[in-house]
Amino acid sequence: YLPPPDTVVNGRVGGQVWYDANGDGIQNDVEANVAVGSLPVALFTCAGVSVGSGLTGAAGEYEFVDIVPGEYYVAFTLPEGYRFSPKDATNDSLDSDVDVLTGRTVCFQVDSAEGETNWDAGIAPIPQTIGCTRPIGFWKNHTGFRHQEDLITPLLPQYLGNPDGTASVAVTNVRTAVAVFQMKAYGGAFNGIARLYARLLVAKLNVAAGADGSVVTEVIAAADSFLGSHTWRSWWKLSKADRKQVLRWTTVLVQYNSGRIGPGACDAQVGNGHDYDDGGGHDGDDGRDDGGHHGNQGDDQGDGKTEY
C-alpha cells in the first residue's frame, strides 16, 4: 500500500541500551546478550523540546512511535556507578552512539515510517578507584595488547589540552594512548611537548582512576591551556622561557605520577621484569643542549615497553 503523495507518514525512533563489560564501546558476542532494562530514555527535538520519554524494556530496547518528520536527538540517563562507553568505536550496529559527557546522540533526521532504529547506548561500570598514583611504565603495560589487562579504555576519553582547543589531542582509544606514551608520533622523546603529552596523560589517568589530583590541579590546567593552542610541532619554535615552563610542568607531573608528591605511589610498582620507575628529568633539559647535542632523557629512563 502506498499513501497518496500529499500524505505525511510519521516515523519512529528506537535502539537498545547494552552493558559494555570491558568498556571498549564495542558490543561483542557476550555483551550482546546482556541488556540494560528500566533505564530512562527521552526524545527531544533539536531545539530541545521534549517529545516523549520512558524506560528501556527487559532487552534494553526502546522505541518512540508516530514521530513527526524532523530533526531529533535521544538522551539517556545513567544509573549510579556507570559511565557511557566511548562513542562510535566501530560500525553502527555494534557501537554506542552517545556522547560520553552529555548522554545524548547527535541530531538526526526522521523522515518516514521506516524511522531511525539504531541509536544505541553502551554503559560500563566506573572503574574502582585506587587512591594512589601509578607511573607511565605501569600504564604502558596495561593497554590490553598481548594478553595485558586493559585498564586505560574505561578511563577514556582524555584530552591533552582544553577539549575545545584547536591544537588539543583527543585520546579516545587505547591505540592513541600508546602513541602518546611512546612519543614517536609526536616528535620523539627529545621533543618537550611530546614528553609533556605523555606525563599529562598519565596524570589524568591517575586522577580518573581515583587518585587525589589536587596537588597538580593548577599544573594540569596551565598545561591544558597551553596545549590547546600549541602542538608538538611548536616545540622548536618556542622561546627558551616557554620551553623551560613546559619542562617544569613535565617535572611536576613526573613527581606526581611516581608518588613523590600527592597521595603517593601504589604498592607493587615493580613486576613481570619491568621497571616502573618514572624517572626524573630536570628543569632546563629539553632533550638537546644549546649546542644541539642530545641531552639527558631523564624521565624517560626506566619505562616499561608496550607490545602490540
Give your account of this protein's structure:
The protein is of the alpha+beta class. The protein has 2 domains: 115 residues, Immunoglobulin-like (Sandwich); 165 residues, no CATH class. The chain is built from 5 helices and 10 strands. The strands form 3 sheets. It has a 4-stranded mixed β-sheet with strand order 4-1-8-6, with no helix packed on it. Helix 2 crosses helix 3, helix 3 runs parallel beside helix 5 and helix 4 packs across helix 5. The radius of gyration is 23 Å and the shape is elongated. The C terminus is likely disordered.
Outline the secondary-structure elements.
Blueprint: E1 11-19, E2 40-45, E3 50-55, E4 61-67, E5 70-76, E6 82-84, E7 108-110, E8 121-125, H1 136-140, E9 158-160, E10 169-171, H2 174-182, H3 192-208, H4 217-227, H5 240-257
Parallel strand pairs: 1-8
Antiparallel strand pairs: 1-4, 2-3, 2-5, 5-7, 6-8, 9-10
Strand residue percentage: 15-25%
Spatial ordering of strands, largest sheet: 4-1-8-6
Count of discrete alpha- or pi-helical segments spanning 4 or more residues: 5
The helical percent reads 10-25%
Count of the domains: 2
Overall pLDDT = 82
Series of H and E elements: EEEEEEEEHEEHHHH
- Terminal CA distance reads 55 Å
> Which overall shape is indicated by the principal axes computed on the Cα atoms?
elongated
Characterize the largest beta sheet: strand count, sense, and whether it forms a barrel.
4 strands, mixed
Which stretches of 5+ consecutive residues score pLDDT under 50?
268-308
Please tell me how large the radius of gyration is. Answer: 23 Å
Structural class: alpha+beta
* Counted beta strands: 10
